[in-house]
Design a protein that fits this description.
Low-confidence stretches: none
Strand order of the largest sheet: 2-1-3-4-5
EC number: 3.5.4.5
Oligomer: single chain
Order of helices and strands: HEEHEHEEHH
InterPro entries: CMP_dCMP_dom, Cyt/Deoxycyt_deaminase, Cyt_deam_tetra, Cytidine_deaminase-like
CATH superfamily: Cytidine Deaminase, domain 2
Protein name: Cytidine deaminase
CATH class: Alpha Beta
Largest sheet: 5 strands, mixed
Mean pLDDT: 95
CATH topology: Cytidine Deaminase, domain 2
Pfam families: dCMP_cyt_deam_1
Cofactor: Zn(2+)
Number of domains: 1
Structural class: alpha+beta
Strand content: 15-25%
């Protein structure tokens, strides 16, 4: 059984470390890997807004930097601790790292990635086009 409260608290804790001097909008993300590792990430802004790093990007980078695997459970919060939805770009990133079965805590409850990103584009689509 996943302790969603503890996972959300890890996201809140890391959101406090976000670097958001331009927007003031802090974001924290926390997830569990298939081997039980806790992974976290926070947004890191840049004066050139387009190169800002999302919290989800940092989290997925930590997944791969610490041994790889797949995400199984994920939550994202804003600076006040409210659960928020990842943007479309980050939903794609999460799909790649966790697939259809990844469970996501959303403002509407726990949903699987295939509910959050229906009809997602993935590696199998690339394989089909190569034929």
């Amino acid at each position: 059984m996943v302790d969603w409260d503890a996972l959300q608290q890890a996201a809140v804790d890391i959101a406090a470390r976000a670097y958001a001097p331009y927007s003031g909008y802090r974001v924290g993300a926390a997830a569990l890997a298939d081997d039980g590792r806790l992974l976290v990430g926070c947004n890191v802004e840049n004066a050139a807004y387009g190169v800002t790093l999302c919290a989800e990007c940092g989290l997925v980078s930590q997944l791969h930097a610490s041994g790889g695997g797949r995400l199984t459970h994920f939550v994202c919060v804003n600076g006040t601790g409210d659960v928020i939805m990842p943007c479309g770009r980050c939903r794609q990133l999460l799909w790649e790292a966790g697939g259809a079965a990844l469970e996501v805590l959303t403002p509407e409850g726990v949903l699987t990635m295939d509910q959050v990103l229906p009809q997602a584009f993935g590696p199998e689509d690339l394989e089909r086009s190569a034929r």
